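quick one: magnesium ion bound model?
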Amino acid sequence: MSPDITEPRPRTALGPGPQSSGRPKRVLAAEDNPVFQSMLRTMLTKWGYEAVMARDGVEAWQILQAPDSPRLAILDWMMPGMDGVEVCRRVRAADREPYIYILLLTARTESQDIVEGMDAGADDYLTKPFNAHELRVRLRAGSRILDLQEELLVAREALREQATHDSLTGLLNRASILQALQNELSRADRESQPVSLLMVDLDRFKNINDTHGHLAGDAVLREAARRMKSAIRRYDAIGRYGGEEFLILLPGCEGETARLQAERVRESLAASPFTSGADSVSVTCSIGASWRGRPGISDTDSLVRDADLALYCAKDRGRNRVEMAAAQPPAAGDADLPSLALAVDRH
Ligand code: GH3
Ligand code: MG
Ligand code: MG
Ligand code: MG
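yep, here:
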């Protein structure tokens, strides 16, 4: 049953003041009339909000465009420069996240006016002169909606993270790293830049599982992911391609630069043993690198296939090493040849 909002009520009945992550919630109050302005400021502060005041619509719109603007706004309808309804329209047209909850204050009581205000995107309205308790409970209702929306955004972000990342290592998952490669190739086309791809496979990883158990194997995968991630540049991308296989994208790299980068990744694992409790395990990896020059014709599939072939050679030649595939020739007619192939540079 809803409480009678016109009745005075003890302060404690409304619980603690409105907070957002430990700070008082900020409320924008846009009002041109100095008497209403100071009333609003006093009430908001008393109710535990942080009041952010605007004297007209232009100022309100400026405040609401800032990235960290208040998410609750009380807008007077009639204001010089830009009225509250226009501010509403602009906020909704900007369609920003997180949502801004707008309460319109109006002296108008005609239902067609109310419809116009709500149509412009207001969430609620109060007619002047308004009852303080009513404003207070309506702000609380708005605040609850914003809290719910924040929970939804957090849940959506968690789902996105789950769908795009590998749960064991926290790296991009297979679909995402392949998508990143696809995006990078399109960008490289536009900017006429080379791209390299490393396929990394841990050496004799089955032995690690067999000797130390699967949990230790999992810990090795996590630590290997962490080390490789620290070994690459900020704008490179790394993902888990399969069990103990990883893909690393190196935008802007070709030939020797890619090989040096691959050596750095290899070294990051081989440099020191992995320790877990009393156990100490030496972990190495083999890396196959493919690259596309500028202009290049190779697509995602051919780069992956070529890196895979080069990786196979690295395994064949003793593991804990890097092998480069030759760059694909730029001639369009050669695109389908399984060429690449087999030309693996010796280092
Ligand atoms: P190579 O040097 O030729 O790559 O030998 P390898 O033992 O690393 O290769 P193989 O393909 O024979 O074995 C890979 C092993 O990785 C087998 C599989 O059980 C293990 N593996 C795959 N995913 C996971 C995982 O998520 N956790 C653990 N602990 N092991 C995994
Ligand atoms: Mg006014
Ligand atoms: Mg493997
Ligand atoms: Mg392996």
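The mean pLDDT is 88.
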